[in-house]
Amino acid sequence: MKTVCIILNYNDADTTIALLDRIRDYKVLDAVILVDNASTDDSAARLRKKVGGKVILVTAPRNGGYGAGNNLGIRYAAEVFRADYALIANPDTEFSEECVRELAETMERRPTIGVIAPVQVTPAFGEKAAVLGSRENVLTGPAAWPLRPWFYDLLESGPVCRRVFRPVLHYDSWKYTGRKLVRVDCVPGSLLMVDVQRMLACGGFDERVFLYEEEYILGQRMRASGADTVLHTGLRYFHHHGVSIGKSRSSMLARQKLREESTLYYFRNYLKASGAQLLLSRLFFAAVNLETGLADLYESR
Length: 301
Description:
The structure is a single chain. This protein is α/β, with parallel strands linked by helices. The protein has helices spanning 13-23, 43-48, 65-81, 97-109, 128-131, 150-157, 161-164, 166-169, 196-202, 214-225, 243-248, 252-269, 275-300, and strands at residues 3-9, 31-36, 55-59, 85-89, 93-94, 113-121, 181-184, 191-195, 228-239. Strand 2, helix 2 (43-48) and strand 3 (55-59) form a beta-alpha-beta unit. Helix 3 packs across helix 9 and helix 12 runs antiparallel to helix 13 (275-300).
């Protein structure tokens, strides 16, 4: 059983190196693959100084986004290391060696699993010292969610609507109660472990999406291939949400517009939304963008 970790970097060497320094001595990892996604700063040069032992640097010829960069790392893991499992980690995450080991061992015991993730904890849901390593079967924050029909996904796309309609957009709490391994449709892309061969077989991440919606698409592809996506409720990781994306897309409006492009692509190509549904989606996004733009102006005062 070979397990590697893939860390995708774009203009954020400080955060990437901090994560690397925390995990490079994890015995459960056979390699740490740093993928520099064609950074425009000195990231590649700084990361190259960290190469050695089980730390590898792979440089992308262009910045194709989250999916393209991680696919590059997954292919490298398969071709060079013959890896069984790959932990895909955002640079702004923190996780224990026990967490990585338990994820890999669970996948080894259950070969139908294509994707598995621990529970994500963000600053909005408590201090990391109180949750890292916690074994409580309590979910907080966006831990997992179902694949939804078009209208429900549209509601999830609005910052206000997703809060108002949260009870009908996410799983009921009973789904998790008393269960360590829960089959779900989607898990956050900030930290997840994939079966390398199953990932390659389903086509990996859709490289036509630059950022956002990749978790939905991966959920669709895993479901279509017959593989399971699983949430491990007994494990936690901490996510400094938005640190990396915030450095390259600083305004809320810029991030919202990028999310809109990806969402329309997902609606059109995976949910097979009609022309009328796509038109209604664009009108909905126009209202969301107005609200987001006003929020940007308020924060810049």
